[in-house]
Amino acid sequence: MTASTSTLVVGAGLGFLGLAALCLSLGRHHQALWPTPPDRRRVLGLRVAGWTLIALSLAAAIRLEGWNFGPVDWIGSLTGAGLLLIVVQSYRPRALLWLVPLAAAVTAAAALGALA
Amino acid sequence: MRQGFRQSMAWLHTWSGLVVGWVLFAVFVTGTATYYRTDISRWMQPELRREATMSPEALAASADLAVAHLQAHAGGARTWFVTLPTPDRPLVELFWRNRPGTPPGHVLLDPRTGAPAALRATRGGDFFYRFHFELNLPPLWGRWIVGICAMVMLVALVSGIVTHRRIFADFFTLRRDKAAQRGWLDAHNVSGVLALPFHLMITYTGMVTLALMYMPWGVTAAYRGDQSAYFAETGQITRDRPATGEPGTLAPVGPMVARALATLPGPLERLTIVNPRDANSTIVAVFEEPHGLSHEHPQVAFAGTSGAIVEVLSGALRPAAKTFTTLVGLHEAHFAGAALRVLFFLCGLMGSAMVGSGLVLWTVARLPKAGAATGFGWRIVHTLNLGTIAGLPAGIALYFLANRLLPLDLAGRADWEVRAFFGAWILVAVAGAWPAPRRAWRLALAAVAGLFVAVVVADAATACGLWDDPAWFLGFDAALLGLAAGFALISHKVARFAAPRRARRAVPEPAPRMEAA
Fold first, then answer.
1. In sequence order, what DSSP letters do the residues of B2-63 get, joined into one string?
2. Which one, of B249, B211, B257, B246, lies nearest residue B230 by Cα?
């Protein structure tokens, strides 16, 4: 895996997790997985987690690719992650239950590989 | 303002989007294809054999061979363009213009023999590249039309953002279980908002690439309209060396190529030979862009008669020029490796989907009540929609199909491929006037899917013996099959969904949706 590809995987992974958290903080999408809308604390937690993960994905892209390519890679990977998320949660929302841990594992592996 | 700001913007978005939508769809689709321009060209010339490396000696020999050919066949031309061989494309490509009004000269040579290369004639991916900003029209016309449409596109993008009230709440929403209009609106919103950074970037930088044509006044005022003086002073090209009118003889080019390679690192891409028979002839060796966002080619200029270096350009652009080349570089994305390129391609597809779904949305939102006749305007928009959204992909499929099926020795073969492209497009557009809109959509999209499958079948049947790297060709064919599957899926959805009647009641806000796993 080339340096730039692992950046994209890390960025897309963190972006996917962040966007998924933001998505689940919305009543409609929360209820696709769980019977009730999220309570206030949960909304807050999910949103803080979501924005933190997205910020992390930007930080990771810049750390790995620098200020020239980092932002381009970041926006690209975030768009790709968003597309995957929207397709999954429109057609198979329950797949998020196993995709989220999978994305976390892949991201961690790619991040370790990129930093090693 | 008669109505609220948002309503005005909604009106602006609807109508600005509609007027330029058909051209924009074509620009988006061919631009997206251009991300894989070299791959398309390679697929369309399966006879091509790649090489492992290209030595400096081989490059010098190729340059000598190119100049010999041009001396013999293009003596009267003011400028010769020579694209040097690379391992991926070991061919010498020559291009020259004899005089205005006559067709330019163009030939591909085999660098080992010096004879014209034994490849099928095709315009390959270059056709999509040029169509993307010239629409196959005379260049000035095409560039102006595309530019004006891009400017209106920016208007549509910004007014669209203003109009979209629930841009954050609906960010992830793609409702499949509601009325057709809701579904199309969601598809339009998702494809627009998700790739919004890309859409803004690509539209803006696209205009920047031709900004000097659209807004020439600065250069007119400061350089008396001499664009090459402007480009030279900003360090983007080497200085112009005007012809003296005295005849001169070109020194051997091979040693100049060797010196250029010793002067700058990085692969040498092409030679530009200006005024080849003048005492003040110039040879510019143009290198590939070094890895970076900015689109700038390092260059070494030689005095043609003596072979002495007169100028070296490498990096060192000032901020304004650097801003320009970076914006152009972002548009072209030559820097993108395989993975990032896929993402750019996906963004391009989303741009096409945004324009296409917007066009369809216009007709879906104005469907007449059940039983009522459709109006003339509605039918025009519907027919143009179908003609563009299904017609263009059909044209692309037939362009590929013609590449595999036309006889190899057909005169004007490359032009026949282009005729196949337009022929299929026009045929689908005419068939789109079929009186039953839904059936017309379903059949046209199914036909596109079928055509892409036919391309893969024709490739496997006629060209598999020529593949130098079967895995690569199979990958390309798999991508075509993916496109076919996409069109088949949409055709299937249209059959299920776009019933020509309005949703009878206002759509209630989301009921809890519990899906069984």
1. -S-HHHHHHHHHHHHHHHHHHHHHHHHHHHHHHTTHHHHHHHH-TT----S---HHHHHHHH
2. B211
- The interface predicted TM-score (ipTM) is 0.91
DSSP B278: B
**How many Å separate Cα B340 from the centre of its chain?**
17
Name the closest residue on chain B to residue A9, using Cα atoms.
B339
Q: Is the pLDDT of residue B212 over 90?
A: no
- Cα angle for residues B419, B119, B29 (degrees, 5° grid): 45
Locus of tokens 């990129």: A114
Residues of B with CB under 8 A from a CB of A: 169, 171-176, 190, 194-195, 197-198, 292-293, 330, 335, 337-340, 342-344, 346-347, 350, 510, 512-515, 517
Spatial distance between the Cα atoms of B69 and B96, rounded to a whole number of angstroms:
12
pLDDT tens, position by position, B390-414: 999 999 999 999 999 999 999 889 9
Q: Which helix (H) or strand (E) covers residue B106, if one does?
A: strand B105-109
SS3 B459: helix
Q: Edge-to-edge, what's the strand order for the sheet holding B299-303? A: B105-109, B92-96, B79-83, B268-274, B282-287, B299-303, B309-313
Using CA atoms, how far residue B83 sits from A22, B59, B64, B96, B106, in Å, is 50, 10, 12, 12, 11
Angle, helices B376-389/B413-431, rounded to nearest 10 degrees: 150
Containing domain of residue A61, as a range?
A: 3-115
Structure confidence at residue A2 (pLDDT): 62
Q: Please tell me the total count of domains within chain A.
A: 1
Tell me what pLDDT residue B497 has: 61
CA B30/CA B403 separation, integer angstroms: 17
For B509, the closest chain A residue by CA position comes to: A28
Q: Do B173 and A28 touch (CB under 8 A)?
A: yes
Name the residue among A23, A26, A32 with its Cβ closest to that of B513.
Answer: A32
> How far are the Cα atoms of B86, B251, B256, B282 from residue B307, in angstroms, in the given order?
24, 6, 6, 9
Count Cβ atoms within 10 A of the Cβ of residue B171 and give its class: 0-12 exposed, 13-18 middle, 19 or more buried: buried
- Higher-confidence position of A62 and B371: A62
What are the tokens at A87?
């397709």
Smallest CA–CA separation between A12 and chain B, in Å?
Answer: 11
B298 contact partners, CB below 8 Å, separation of at least 6: B264, B266, B286, B287, B290, B313, B314, B315
Query: Alpha-carbon distance B425 to B398, whole Å?
Result: 9
